[in-house]
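Thread: "does anyone have the structure for this chain?"

Original post by V.I.:
We have the sequence but no experimental structure in hand. Need at least a predicted one for the grant figures.
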Amino acid sequence: MRSIAVVGAALLALLPPAARAQVSNDPASLTQDEEDRLREAQDPSQRIGVFLELSGERLERFNAIRQAPPDPAAAGRGGKLDLLLSEYIALDDELKRWIQDQYNTDHDMRKGLRALLEQEPRQLALLTLAQQQPDRYQADYEQSLRDAIADVNDTLDGATQALATQEKKFAAQERAEKADAKAARQSAAEEKKRQKEERRLRKKDQHKGDSDGEDQNY
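Reply from O.Q.:
Generated one for you, tokens below.
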């Protein structure tokens, strides 16, 4: 993203063309349980957290298969690794769409963005390590790996700027709300003080009237 006004460029459009095509052809293949987890997380930050969990689970499986001892009976490992990276990219693309939607509608997702900026660098480190330490299957998933690394970098860039904007915006709103609440408390206290003074004056006038009446009777 080059400016806050085009946050979507970093969150969506900066995906490499190959990655965008891969996302289109290979969706995240969510299970019913995973779909339920996403659907139930209606809070913006909670939804971001679920996306991070799901993408992290794909990378854990990717790493486990990659580090498993060679086994002639375990055919198709390269294809499985490529598929997991495709699912990872698809999840990250959906995460970007969610962030963009919440950003456009001014929903507070600061907590989720902070979690993203804490967790995705670790995911990026794992992907980078896989690139730097190639295995016997890397030819099968090399393009997906490059796309995933580019995708995560774009996500981190967009999330960093989105968080900076929200920190500034919502912090200003919170200061204004605190100032309004303080002014309301002061106004209520002054009104209470005024009413108390009025009651005191009425009692004083009433007491004075009673005294004048007694004097006249005397």
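V.I.: this helps a lot. Residues 54 and 91 are 8 Å apart (CA to CA).
O.Q.: and The helical segments are 7-13, 17-25, 32-40, 44-67, 77-104, 110-132, 138-217.
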